[in-house]
Amino acid sequence: MKNSAMVMQIQDPASQRLTWYKPPLTVLVIKKVSDASVLAPFVYLVDWLLQEKNMVVWVESAVLEDAQLNENVRFKAIRDKLVTFKDGRDDLTDRIDFIVCLGGDGTLLYASLLFQQSVPPVMAFHLGSLGFLTPFRFDNFEEQLTSVLEGHAALTLRSRLRCVMHRRSDRKHEAKTLEVDPDGEARPAANSILVLNEVVIDRGPSPYLSNIDLFLDGKYITSVQGDGLIVSTPTGSTAYAAAAGASMIHPSVPAIMVTPICPHSLSFRPIVVPAGVELKISVSPESRNTSWVSFDGRNRQELFHGDSLRVTTSIYPVPCICAQDQISDWFASLADGLHWNVRKRQKCLDELSDLTASGSEDTLDEIENMKFYDV
């Protein structure tokens, strides 16, 4: 095609590399809560960052209230050097250069929740259960962290969904609550939330089917009659959506997944729509009950008749540092976390018995005789 405007530009995932415009000075360390096995690695890591790298280390204030942690002699010596914050009260925007997560996938989801706009690069160590989003092992953390701090690492930009609740009672005041951030993304001041995995709309405690209307860019698409609906990112395609029968999508694919939960229809298959569209979800006027919405498993709230939820792809992804590269990390997580396509290997022809190779009647007779004598 001669018209350059009609040529699709496809970015090579390998081109996404970590680049520090200035040496990172502040690091936020997030650890898994209520897990004693994470305490020792947490202390070693924080002490190393303070002593060896001379970095300013931030932790959540609740960490300092951990009784077991305060009994650690090594932690007592560095406790006063830590900078703390309180979730929901302190704004960390532009104050953190780098994030380290110790635990499972929940620590990465929590990091996403803390930063509702631009997110610093995240390095996640697998010290939890599944570890699908945590590719690093803690055994040689000094070498791995040093390499990352020097800028030798690949990145996976994990897209997030921007979810906005529109209440029927607030429509008169919608114009007043709408704000525009510096990057041009319009957002209501209090009702917007970014999710890394998925937003789930379900029937809650009601015994009736959910009856949910789905619109795409203002056009009516379908009504969901079932237990509910999952709208997920490619990252979330291996979470709840996978359990509901959806395909697994590489996190670099720009898309939004729409997956029904136990639909009362044999033909309602999960669908994938472009990342640039806006989805609108509302309770059908004929619905016998309301619906409930949760965002990455948090902030559960009721969706009433006349309310709507609008979902788009956010301009603020989560930059996750790769242990190897985008492709190797993802397929390793599929194999290790979900045992994807794990089965015994089929034997080659050389390993088969003479019976299979010959297929003669004499051999079959011999087998029948063997069965007879065995009995």
UniProtKB/TrEMBL annotation:
GO terms for molecular function: NAD+ kinase activity. The keyword Kinase applies. Keywords: Kinase, NAD, NADP, Transferase. It is an enzyme of class 2 (transferase). One of its GO terms (biological process) is NADP+ biosynthetic process. The keyword NAD applies. Its EC number is 2.7.1.23. InterPro entries: ATP-NAD_kinase_N (IPR017438), ATP-NAD_kinase_PpnK-typ_C (IPR017437), NAD/diacylglycerol_kinase_sf (IPR016064), NADK (IPR002504). Belongs to the NAD kinase family. This is NAD(+) kinase. It comes from Drosophila mauritiana (Fruit fly). The gene is LOC117135606.
